Amino acid sequence: MGPKGGQPYRSLSQLAVDRPDRSAPVAFAMNGGMFDAEGGPIGYYVEDGEKGKSLNTNEGFGNFHLLPNGVFFGDTNGKWQIRTSTDFEQSVHDRPDFGTQSGPMLVIDGNLHPKIDPDGKSLKLRNGVGIDNKGRAHFVISDEPVSFGKLARYFRDTLKCPNALFLDGSVSSLWDPEHGRVDGGPRLGPLIVVEKRTKADT
Prior knowledge:
This protein is an alpha+beta fold. It has one domain (27-193). 12% of the residues lie in helices and 31% in strands. The chain has helices at residues 12-18, 85-91, 148-158, and strands spanning 26-31, 45-47, 50-53, 70-74, 80-84, 98-102, 105-108, 111-112, 126-131, 137-141, 163-169, 174-176, 181-182, 191-195. A 5-stranded antiparallel beta sheet has the order 3-2-6-4-5. A 5-stranded antiparallel beta sheet has the order 8-7-11-9-10, with helices on one face.
């Protein structure tokens, strides 16, 4: 997503400045997936039902390619889902309202990603999203540097999410309007904006 000029937002502060023009109030926003040097998604991306990027099944280096990676997707009036990219490619045929591909998966059908150490030495600020058994999305951002394993266990054991997806590390950022928090830092790519429901939505 981006401002009227079409280029993607590269910071939450830029989004916060432009957002008052929109009618629905923002509950929160955070970075939402891996991106290239220009801020564009490197994997599957759909916004408002329009596909911006096809599913990326390439092999490579880095967190995104620590397979399996996955897709967080759903419709604004329905349940949310997280599936591995392979499962998504094979079983999802209707384009969702929103979708973003990232990686690696943190939790897969109740099991931790097989290539993630239980509590590795790499500690960073990290964020991710998990889906519980009711189809509700749980977004998490760490207050201090954590390992992949600790973040994954939090989704599985505390939030009871059988599936969870890593969104990013180091650049992990949050805009929380209610509490006046707008994180700065490195330039961002795809953003996930969660709006508060209005009376017309209920």
